[in-house]
Amino acid sequence: MRSLLPIVLVAATSFSQTQSVTQPGSAAPITIHADRILDGRGNVIAGGTVVVQGGKITRVDKAPTGTATYDLKGYTLMPGLIDAHSHLTWYFNREGRYHTRADGDTPVQSMLSTAANAYATLMAGFTTIQSPGSPEDKDLRDWIALGQIPGPRVLTSLNAFNSTRPTPDTLRAQVRQRKAEGADVIKIFASASIRDGGTQTLSDEQLKAICGEAKAQGLRTMVHAHSAASIKASVLAGCDQIEHGVYADEESLKLMSEHGVFFDPQICLVFRNYLDNRAKYDGIGNYNEAGFAAMEKAIPIATAGFTRAIHTPGLKVIFGTDAVAGAHGRNAEELVCRVQDGKQSPIDAITSATSLGAAALRMGDQIGSIAPGLQADLVAVKGDPTKDITAMRNVMFVMKGGRVYRNDK
Ligand SMILES: [Zn+2]
Questions:
Q1: CA of 51 to the centre of ligand 1 (A)
Q2: Model pLDDT for residues 344-372, shown as the tens digit of each residue
Q3: What's the 343 CA to ligand 1 centre distance in angstroms?
Q4: Around ion ligand 1, which residues have CB less than 5 A away?
Q5: Most buried by CB count within 10 Å: which residue of 9, 111, 231, 258?
Q6: How far apart are CA 48 and CA 62, in angstroms?
Q7: CA 114, CA 116: separation in Å to the nearest integer?
Q8: 132 CA to middle of ligand 1, Å?
Q9: How far is CA 204 from the centre of its chain?
Q10: Of 409, 164, 173, 194, which Cα lies nearest the Cα of 294?
């Protein structure tokens, strides 16, 4: 957050110099009418109005008031969506294969694909994403914030903590180093990949060193952890957010809840995307026969685990897709699965991707809700997603920081 704020201010300044009347920094208010407004905190306002000025929400009315700059009749307005886990740097190369460092693509070529992924994500209604594990994200984050390329707000961990070799002291120094490099969050692998069994990799002591130092430095931690043991160790080490958790059991779910740890499980998009694009990944690293079989097997386990998680009292289940190459711009498919297969209510699913997601990023006072004073990150979909979650596929209006990036009406 510390590194994000100044950038947002810079962006607002540059907009005011270059943008037309409906853009941030302009004095003229923007008035939006919609059939219904979801405030991102679980409330539905029928036929309301949102007023935006200077890039921020200034007023929310429970009736159609004023002349509409945007009359979104037939549509539902909600806060810009937040994906707590997306890998924008992952893409398919010109040979139609998953890009690896060995395929000869230049950093510029890779960044062009990354920019395309950022654009697709924004057009799908996701105005903020958290990207674990790519140093390239830093420039992407900063260029988007400058308003030079379209994309969601990006929070990045830069490189992830993966190696089991460093001593606790070295790990603590590396956390401070990551902070100095401009990381917004620390990403840790506490367990192996689902394709390799998902058992704990870092020791309890190593986890304590990383999450303890991050906390002391005011940085959040997000931990890749599949096995119940790796989740438990991470929670007890004081880490803030658990990713995936396919093998979470009752005890580890309860433990996360008791410690106020955010849980970010995935149940379909990431798995189905790999399986649907199998030929593009096959033969690279652990994307092999056994790896694909493990992912296929994980879907029902993850789905049942998700349903258990949302019924665990007090557990804060947020929305993250783990979007990789092939999935960018289809992030909302995970919302559809969570409702249709995971049995979450549509309004709770939307809250997980708005105000709850913002709370996990410690940005609840800036994004994730439609309320006066917050950033004007607003998205509209055709129809009523509280009745039919598949409406989330039909994003037709996207505003970020008061600037309209999409308006299909
Ligand atoms: Zn990931």
A1: 36
A2: 999 999 999 999 999 999 999 999 999 99
A3: 24
A4: 322
A5: 231
A6: 4
A7: 5
A8: 6
A9: 27
A10: 194
